[in-house]
Design goal:
It contains twelve helices and no strands. With 345 residues, the chain is mostly helical.
């Protein structure tokens, strides 16, 4: 019974830590970002260590390479991306006027049929709500993109903290390992290996798939002559991480903006997005990610709904790997409780 209470206490502490983390989520953002960055770069550090690099030297070499890549992107891609963001902000008022004209024409078309006042009010009300939702969606999207500037300190802290996490990984690991009883370390090691397999496969696979989708969408939108191809390609690539809903969320901004140009452009943009998603879902994702998460589709849907409710888009982005990790942790805890109950009997 004492052991059961002990594991129950650990579970309660875990829940309390999760609640505390939720309350302090704004402060934890750079820390979590640094941990993810260090986790992604860790295999490269290990590889360099095996080829006559010290841990510090390997970390410095990787950061130097990252700096060169970021500098190249900053010189070549960032100015163009920033121009497209500003261009999108300028187009919103113009598209608002075009949308209002389209809705007025639709309202006039409905009035030609001399429908009863109840139906006319319903149709006009639905059109007004559609206008409000479309404008709110585009405005919120631009606000989120521009708000990245307000998190410049977090963006700077992430690589700095990530450097120390990488450099002092062995020391930090030893300190955390002391918190685990010796008799449970082997079991915990097995659990952590399972978590590592799921998380590393998902992160590396999602980054690769997202980059491929961003490249395909940007190239496709550029070919059909649509404005802001790089911006909408990046949006599609980021949201592609979200299962089921990500393709629709990533497609909506491009199709909405294209519809303000012409119906032909909207159809062309939708065709590009659908074609890219078909290539991704049927060719790229099965080979790169596969079924590494091990969570039933119903569990994935529930995780997405909970993540979206608690943390919005960011919650949906991390909902699937979090569900996979929780599944392993709960299975481990369940097995321990069952084992303790059996020993008592």
């Amino acid at each position: 019974m004492n052991k059961i209470w002990r594991y129950g206490l650990v579970a309660m502490l875990f829940v309390a830590a999760a609640l505390f983390g939720y309350q302090m989520r704004s402060i934890l953002v750079p820390i979590m970002g640094a941990l993810i960055l260090a986790y992604i770069l860790e295999p490269i550090v290990v590889y360099l260590e095996a080829h006559r690099f010290t841990r510090v030297g390997a970390t410095l070499a990787i950061y130097l390479l990252l700096f060169c890549i970021i500098a190249a992107f900053g010189l070549l891609g960032l100015p163009r991306l920033w121009q497209q963001i500003l261009r999108a902000a300028e187009l919103i008022p113009l598209y608002n006027e075009q949308l209002q004209n389209v809705l007025n024409q639709a309202a006039a078309f409905c009035q030609q049929f001399a429908l009863p006042s109840v139906f006319s009010e319903m149709i006009l009300g639905s059109l007004d709500q559609l206008e409000i939702k479309i404008l709110a969606l585009t405005a919120r999207l631009m606000e989120n993109l521009l708000s990245l500037l307000s998190h410049s300190l977090d963006i700077v802290l992430i690589p700095v903290l990530g450097f120390y996490f990488l450099k002092d990984k062995d020391f930090l690991q030893r300190q955390l390992w002391q918190l685990i009883p010796v008799k449970n370390r082997q079991e915990v090691t097995v659990m952590l290996r399972q978590m590592d397999y799921i998380l590393r496969g998902f992160l590396s696979g999602s980054l690769t798939v997202g980059f491929c989708v961003a490249l395909m969408v940007s190239a496709g939108l550029l070919i059909i002559g649509m404005d802001l191809p790089l911006l909408f390609g990046m949006i599609a690539g980021v949201f592609n991480v979200i299962p089921y809903f990500g393709a629709i969320i990533g497609m909506a901004p491009a199709v909405i903006f294209a519809s303000f140009t012409s119906l032909k452009m909207a159809v062309s943009a939708a065709t590009v997005m659908i074609l890219a998603q078909q290539i991704e879902s049927n060719l790229i994702t099965p080979k790169i990610i596969g079924e590494k998460i091990g969570v039933h589709p119903i569990g994935v849907m529930i995780a997405l709904l909970i993540g979206g409710k608690l943390w919005g888009i960011m919650g949906m982005l991390f909902a699937v790997p979090t569900a996979g990790l929780l599944k392993i942790a709960l299975e481990f805890l369940y097995e321990k409780i069952i084992a303790l109950s059996t020993e008592k009997i």
